[in-house]
Design a protein that fits this description.
By secondary structure, this protein is mainly alpha-helical. The protein folds into 2 domains: 95 residues, DNA polymerase, domain 1 (Orthogonal Bundle); 175 residues, hpI Integrase, Chain A. The protein contains 13 helices and 3 strands. Strands 1-2-3 form a 3-stranded antiparallel sheet. Strand 1 and strand 2 form a beta hairpin.
């Protein structure tokens, strides 16, 4: 077994670190426990960086000072997430008797940064994104009208598109390994049917190509999930082509939540189910932001109705 099965970094120095086999065992333990591939990848990114910073340390050699300095190397907005990743490794190391005490117990968890209202894509921007030529337009529509997380989108294959029942079957890459189905509206079904037919996407092919065609690369390849950096490059390039100002890919999911509410006026429980949230409070707190413009518009409409 290789030290790291996922290896998203392509910087292999962490594999030679003293704690590499311990981190590999931890990732295997998480995998057996049902952690989603996207979550495992995020854990690995953080721990690989820690190992590169302290290549000579075994699990028992890390001090709270070492770990505090490591966390301070990250921007304030991401320290909380990195704290969770590192802490989970040392919790496991203690359970597996590799260490006697968790040094993270002496490091306070960074406060969660106040969450700003997400800036979703406008109707005009969504139209421009969906109008992109094959294969980019249908893939953009899939993100905007199915609300997939990036890890879910990267892992979706042709057999997960159920045209007969009008469903998207979200399986590989689902957060927390929770499978779900998402209803597919006619415009999305038409776009995906064109994508699969024209591009020759088979049942076991991934919708996002992991190698584009043309030039020295040869034919398009869809035999494995597109890598995280490659997906981000695809996203940025597609937005530039559509003439849409950059927002991160997760904003397509926020946009989807708003579309479900504005276009179909679905109850919050239905939106929760489509998004795959385990708690309705997550849907309310994270996605259902109401701007003062929207509130004002409804207030004026009610006044007009009474006049």
């Amino acid at each position: 077994m290789t030290a790291y099965a996922l290896d998203p970094l392509r910087d292999l120095r962490h594999r030679a670190a003293r704690s590499a086999s311990d981190v590999a065992s931890w990732l295997t333990w998480l995998h057996l426990g049902g952690k989603a591939p996207g979550t495992l990848e995020q854990y690995e990114w953080t721990l690989a960086a820690l190992l590169r910073a302290f290549p000579e340390h075994g699990p028992a050699d890390f001090t709270e000072d070492d770990l505090a300095m490591f966390l301070l190397s990250y921007p304030a907005g991401s320290r909380g997430l990195r704290w969770v990743h590192v802490n989970q490794f040392f919790v496991w190391a203690r359970k597996s008797r590799r260490i006697q005490a968790n040094p993270m117990d002496l490091i306070p968890r960074p406060r969660k940064k106040h969450q700003s209202v997400p800036e979703t894509f406008t109707d005009t921007e969504r139209a421009a994104m969906c109008a992109l030529p094959l294969p980019d337009g249908p893939l953009m529509r899939l993100l905007l009208q199915a609300g997939l997380r990036k890890a879910e989108a990267r892992n979706i294959t042709g057999k997960r598109i159920d045209f007969e029942r009008g469903l998207i079957l979200v399986k590989e890459g689902a957060k927390g390994s929770k499978d779900r189905t998402v209803p597919m509206m006619p415009a999305l079904a038409t776009a995906l049917d064109e994508l699969l037919t024209v591009e020759g996407v088979g049942r076991d092919d991934f919708l996002w190509y992991d190698r584009p065609g043309g030039g020295r690369a040869g034919r398009v390849r869809r035999s494995k999930p597109i890598g995280n950096p490659s997906f981000d490059r695809w996203w940025r390039r597609s937005l530039e082509t559509a003439g849409v100002r950059y927002r991160n890919p997760h904003m397509s999911r926020h946009t989807y939540a708003g579309w479900l509410k504005s276009e179909f006026d679905l109850p919050i429980e239905d939106i929760q189910k489509n998004l795959g949230h385990s708690s309705v409070s997550t849907t309310v707190d994270v996605y259902m932001h109401l701007t003062t413009i929207e509130i004002g518009a409804r207030m004026r409409a009610k006044l007009a109705a009474k006049a």
